[in-house]
Amino acid sequence: MVYYVxxxxxxxxxxxxxxxxxxxxxxxxxVLGFATGSSPIPxxxxxxxxxxxxxxxxxxxxxxxxxxxxxxxxxxDQSYHYFMMHNLFNFINVPHDRIHVPNxxxxxxxAEGKAYDAAIDAAGGIELQILGLGNNGHIGFNEPCDVYxxxxxxxxxxxxxxxxxxxxxxxxxxxxxxxxTMGIGTIMKARSIVLVxxxxxxAAAVKAxxxxxxxxxxxxxILQFHPSVTxxxxxxAASML
Length: 241
Ligand code: GLP
Description:
This protein has 241 residues and is α/β, with parallel strands linked by helices. It has a single domain, classed as Rossmann fold. Helices cover 30% and strands 17% of the residues. It is built from seven helices and ten strands. The strands form two sheets. It has a seven-stranded parallel β-sheet, covered by helices on one side. A three-stranded antiparallel β-sheet has the order 4-8-7. The protein starts with a strand and ends in an 8-residue tail after the last strand. The model has no long low-confidence stretch (mean pLDDT 97). Bound molecules: 2-amino-2-deoxy-6-O-phosphono-alpha-D-glucopyranose. 2-amino-2-deoxy-6-O-phosphono-alpha-D-glucopyranose binds at residues 35-39, 66-67, 132-134, 140-141, 161, 165. 2-amino-2-deoxy-6-O-phosphono-alpha-D-glucopyranose (GLP) binds next to α5.
């Protein structure tokens, strides 16, 4: 794992956009893994800019997103599918039939999870996965727990995640209580991972991820065992290192 401390979120966004652009230049039919949350937005804006400049072509890619709230349809304005369309996919030339987000309305989440992982494997596996970081060290929606969950699965969101994500909803009561997320095993299979964390609220999770012994109590700490992880931080997020 290597980490860089950059001056601000826009600088980080441009660096990550360069990684994705390099990936599609190197392999136009790449399988790319995407994330939601506020942290990746500057990267998505920079990717859109590079696309508009004609530097990047996403016509050959296939995408898989990390997670989705249970109970929200694709067109719900707080669903992660909606987020991706409105923050990235509507503004680049990724074919919409090759966009994949876990189905938050699945009737059988076990079957949905197994099928999601099988589809990623069948597509050749994720080449480059972007991750944010929860204040509690979660990646995707893999919350702190006793064992690392392996495959895409349904989770119960913790009170701290509901608290952190309520800013996007009218009230905490409206935040879904469950989500479907790639497992830690699914994420660890990505060939390269780039993680972005900015702001003081992430500082303790960043320290646990990079400096402390790996534990499922900080799910992101398992990334210490991944052969290709690049972490981008601002000074606030890096303040406990
Ligand atoms: C959600 C998402 C995560 C994301 C996290 C942090 O819980 N499931 O993938 O990393 O939020 O979000 P933010 O970047 O807004 O702090």
